[in-house]
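Hi all, a correction to my earlier message: I attached the wrong file for Putative sulfonate/nitrate transport system substrate-binding protein. Here's the right sequence:
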Amino acid sequence: MKNLKKLSALLLALALLLGAASAFAEETWTLTCPNGAPALSVATLAAARPDDFTFIAADTIPAAFASAQADFIIAPVNAGAKLFKAGKSTYRLAAVVTWGNLVIASQRDNFSIEDLNGNKLTLFGADTINASVALYALKQFGIEPELADPLAGAAETKALLETDPEAIVLTAEPMFTAAKAANDKITGFPVNDLLDNGYTQAGLFVRAETLEKNPELVKAALAEIEESCGLCMSDPDKVVEALSALEMKFPKAAIPGCAISYVDAAQAKRLVEATVEIDPAQFGGEEPADEFYFENAEK
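and the right structure:
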């Protein structure tokens, strides 16, 4: 009888232990992120937990916000702001993670910023925040180039850069580094070199439902993502290794030009507003409301 009681107690303890372990295992979070430079910010986490991370094409970002399936989304700050303002997203900005990866490049001999005077610049994307920032940065130095018809994306301007020795284009990392590696005549200068603090390019957004139901999980996730972002500077080899595990090709030399740095929303707000001033239309016509920002009280 005593043995039976001991066995029952052991089984009960085991059941409680397994239940606790199961609850702990379920204590995870999911994240959706566009392919390309923003993926650097979470590469090491995604390589360790691939089932919890989804990488998507940039043009599907609005659908990701609308579906509200992921706990977190990394996306252009202006896109998240416009959707939030329009009532099409409940995601709030938790941090800015990328600060501009744009490069103005050419095959021209001794290419410099002055070459843009009297020559055409080919941008990628019509009426985009990237184009607005690049033109704003140039204007600060008295450069207002003539504009050629814009191409669809950075990959397309990279192709023009590689095939037309006279072209001057706006492209982005890692395309620029890849093009330069293939053709040593290509040179360029980062748009961030013309700006004081870069610009608020991609942000980390947190779903309102996740914030409400599990704030402690959110705080833990933000700490993990901040650490992951830091590896882009402190251990880029580890980031490249993680990208390889995710079957993403990304040259190590391009990582610094992607300007990955985790800055929480409270600190980044002023810089978001500075980017809004460059082209308010890209943010829905005005600065985001205070409720757009999630400010982690423990930061």
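Sorry for the mix-up. The chain has two domains: 29-99+199-292, 102-194.
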